[in-house]
Amino acid sequence: MNRISVLDVANYFLSKNSMTPKKLQKLAYYAEAWHQALLQRPLIEDESFQAWVHGPVAPSLYQKYKTYGWNPIPKTEEATVNFCEESLSILESVWETYGDQDGNSLEALTHSEAPWINARAGLEPNENSNVVISTEDMRNYYRSIYLGG
Q1: Residue 57: helix, strand or coil by DSSP?
Q2: Are 133 and 48 contacting, i.e. CB atoms less than 8 angstroms apart?
Q3: What pTM, to 2 d.p., does this model score?
Q4: Going by C-beta distance under 8 Å and a sequence separation of 6 or more, which residues neighbour residue 55?
């Protein structure tokens, strides 16, 4: 099976549409979170998401696209990785569920959810942090939503 990087996941979403770096971060986060919840294993194998002030962030994804600031990253031609069928299904579902929202809406959504809140425990609202969001929190929280909890 292919090793999937956060940049592979980002490229998948950018093949759907152009978007801001903030929106791209949140979509990549939701892809990982739902993959953890539904398949009980990681999608992204090279990096964890950190609980930054503006929501979950994968540092290498931030580094790659930070020059765009608040501006949209152009749409790419095609996703370059062949995801397995289960992973592709989750990516499609994440796009269907969250793809019509902007980065600020997705930021607000992540700020209302337990995995980011738990990782930010004890921090001031604008305090920088590189605390990793627990994959166990992701699995438990999003699985409970899926199961109607």
Answers
A1: strand
A2: yes
A3: 0.95
A4: 22, 25, 26, 29, 106, 107, 110, 111, 116
**CA 51/CA 71 separation, integer angstroms:** 22
8 A C-beta contact, residue 104 and residue 22:
yes
Q: Which two tokens stand for residue 43?
A: 């999608």
What share of the chain in percent tops pLDDT 70? Answer: 97
Residues 6+ apart with CB under 8 A from 57: 25, 29, 49, 50
Task: State pLDDT tens for residues 25-60.
Answer: 999 999 999 999 999 999 999 899 999 999 999 999
Beta carbons of 50 and 130 less than 8 angstroms apart: yes
pLDDT at 16 over 90: yes
Strand partners, 73: 19
How many Cα neighbours within 13 Å face the side chain of 144?
9
Q: What share of the chain is helix, strand, coil (3-state, %, to 5)?
A: 55, 5, 40
Closest CA to 4 of 58, 51, 50, 54: 58
Annotated domain spans of the chain: 6-146
Sign, CA torsion 67/70/74/75:
positive
| Ramachandran quadrant class, 9 (left: phi over 0; alpha: psi -120 to 50; beta: rest) | alpha
